[in-house]
Amino acid sequence: MKLTINEIAERAQVAKSTVSKALNGQKGVSDEKRRQILALAEELNYEPSASAQALASSRTGSIGLLIPHEAGYSLAGAYWSAIITSIAQVANLHNHSLLILTPATGDDVSGPVEAVIRRRNVDGLIIGAEKLDPRVISRLIEEEIPFVFIGRNAQIQHYSVDVDNLGGSERLVSHLASAGRRRIACLAGPEQYLYTQDRVAGYRNALAKAGIEWSSVIHTDYTSEASREAMARLLTEHPDLDALYVTAGGEFLLDCIDVLRLSGENPKRIGLGAFDDYRFFDYIDIPVCAVRQPLREIGEAAAGLLFDFLSGRVPDRMNHVLDVELVLR
Amino acid sequence: MKLTINEIAERAQVAKSTVSKALNGQKGVSDEKRRQILALAEELNYEPSASAQALASSRTGSIGLLIPHEAGYSLAGAYWSAIITSIAQVANLHNHSLLILTPATGDDVSGPVEAVIRRRNVDGLIIGAEKLDPRVISRLIEEEIPFVFIGRNAQIQHYSVDVDNLGGSERLVSHLASAGRRRIACLAGPEQYLYTQDRVAGYRNALAKAGIEWSSVIHTDYTSEASREAMARLLTEHPDLDALYVTAGGEFLLDCIDVLRLSGENPKRIGLGAFDDYRFFDYIDIPVCAVRQPLREIGEAAAGLLFDFLSGRVPDRMNHVLDVELVLR
DNA sequence: CTGAAAGCGCTTACAG
DNA sequence: CTGAAAGCGCTTACAG
Q1: Which of A83, A261, B50, B86 could form a disulfide with B296 if both were Cys (CB 3.0 to 4.6 A apart)?
Q2: Do A280 and B254 touch (CB under 8 A)?
Q3: What are the pLDDT digits (tens) for B87-114?
Q4: Is residue A45 classed as helix, strand or coil in its secondary structure?
């Protein structure tokens, strides 16, 4: 029924080990036979069984993408969706499948990771890094499963692909300042995330360079309640606020915009800056300057890095930092 | 090194076939031994190797999600992202992994499907149905790989999970009519898609029920140029237009809104209806009534259906139609 | 270069 | 109920 290597071997009048070598491009086969075998395989449309290869070689032919779930960050959908697509395409190029690992709502990622480790069904992992149990990482290292980060982690140094959080943030806030804004507050995500720290640092750098002394940073988790409350507090405590920098996108940003719009404040008076750009910014009644992340490139770079590891190359740089684009409005 | 079934068998003083049966909940093992074995496996944290199980049982333990790519439909990101998450979670519940299959940009899905069939690395497939080469389906049937649709296909009848396109559309347009709109045009997606046909039918039903004779439907592919041109044409050909129903979301919808805003037309004069709801509708200067699809439920239902097949149950209904929600603004 | 053999870690008839 | 054996379709030393 199923076309196997035995059939190919028989038809080509060689041993199946020879077929295997020919197909896998290993040396130890004469050019003559190799050509024959390849032609035959092509003709019969033969493709080795993934499970058999996996069992025999202890390489599964798949990589996993570990997506952490963030409270109220579901518009992050657009973020992960673009990244998934680009990773899947790179994986295909390398004849690998892409597995999506994501915890049940409310759980953390350690469950799916543990399962994947124990069942041995990935060769390597790409991991959304900001929030990560160090024990998960220990397990991965213990089991010698290669992995790379998307974003970086405050506790764990590792090969990563990240965007220029600090620089992008600084440029964005500098732009607000150069537009004459002097009371620029910063509504920031969870303080323990490295990207939050970087973005806040960029904010402070920009203020310093512009010679602005006034600053105000409020951190929130991304829950809707906390974000809305923080935003409201900012508006009442600083009635002279003339600009606001929100360090992340998704529902978080929408909650902030929402409070701003409902505050009775003239929204146009307040310059808004956001990290993460959405096309609908063009359509709303508040001008939003934003930092756009190169999502496709993030996925491609992370996958590229992982496949480097899988093929035994050790990348020269540990942290790949991609440029972001400023979108002015 | 790796903990195998042999180790378990040895420690429990039984044959590995007995361990296998116990672990898989098959009968033919005494309660006594079963308990012992289960306890031991639990204690040692044993988990069978996915590849070995796959090879021996010819069940891979993974399902695939086939995502078609649509020109200019990338905000569909939010759509697929929610669906991916819910499918992954259901798959986990069934101890299965989720593979993402998506073609390289510009290609169609047959490549990834063919690869997955030949390498035999999924037990079943969930397929975005609207645009599908019938040959792909033939191959799947030929190879006896179970699959279910998300959405429906105009050519191919098959088990599917879909939303109530016709009803939702009708309710939405009825609402526009009941608000006094009389010149309601419809900007629709590709005519060959079943969901487009259904949504347009809902539009016509609503008009008929409201006793409105005037109607205008323009189909476009989802490319930006075509959508913008169609939208512009609509506005110039029908200066008395007082409402517009756009049958889909994503970039397509944004292009339409964009043209409307730039037309010089007072956007508030024109009632806008959209199929697919986005939270940012709350923030734009045009009131948009929208149909919200239950994305999580779509994914869950589709995965549920597939696992029914995989465990030999034949679902009673062929087409599962989920209700949509009307969001008025 | 070539092939016979063992082995990857399970499952699944089959016999007892 | 229990276990010995064959087999899933490959890869990988190893010997020739």
Answers
A1: B86
A2: yes
A3: 999 999 999 999 999 988 778 888 888 8
A4: coil
